[in-house]
Design a protein that fits this description.
By secondary structure, this protein is mostly beta strands. Helices cover 0% and strands 49% of the residues.
Length: 147
């Protein structure tokens, strides 16, 4: 049996650069906080939908040069509309997919049809330019436990 030696902890290459959208009942559209893809090469969002009492959920990646003016990523990176609960979906984007001069990304979540749904969104970033990645963590990330 071959022995595998790990020279890096997984937490050294994964960042939590945006505060999470905590599990809550949502009734209005919202955006995640932005990720600077000059600090990382990839961003990943995990959308976890629990109960949907009413409505639909759409999500798409947007890009920005300054984290204040936002544009839909072209070609579009978007989920298939969610209409039922107990679903987990991921959305991923790479820095080389962005328009020249734009370095920030976020996930725009649109709730329609008189929505009421329990959901959470976690933002992860990978392949940091500088390690450890935790130096770019958002303010609500208070502890990382590694065994």
């Amino acid at each position: 049996m071959e022995t595998v030696v790990f020279t890096e902890r997984l937490t050294e290459s994964i960042g939590l650069p945006a505060n999470p959208a905590h599990a809550a009942t949502r009734s209005a559209s919202f955006n995640t906080n932005s990720v600077n893809l000059r600090q990382f090469r990839r961003a990943l969002w995990i959308i976890d939908v629990g109960t949907i009492s009413a409505g639909t959920l759409d999500a798409k990646v947007q890009e920005s040069p300054d984290s204040s003016s936002w544009f839909d990523l072209v070609p579009a990176v978007a989920i298939t509309q969610i209409t039922a609960g107990s679903v987990t979906v991921t959305v991923e984007v790479r820095s080389d997919q962005l328009t020249s001069g734009r370095r920030f990304v976020r996930l725009a979540l649109t709730l329609g049809g008189g929505p009421s749904m329990v959901m959470a969104v976690i933002t992860l970033a990978a392949e940091p330019d500088q390690r450890p990645a935790k130096q770019f963590d958002a303010g609500q990330i208070t502890e990382r436990v590694v065994a």
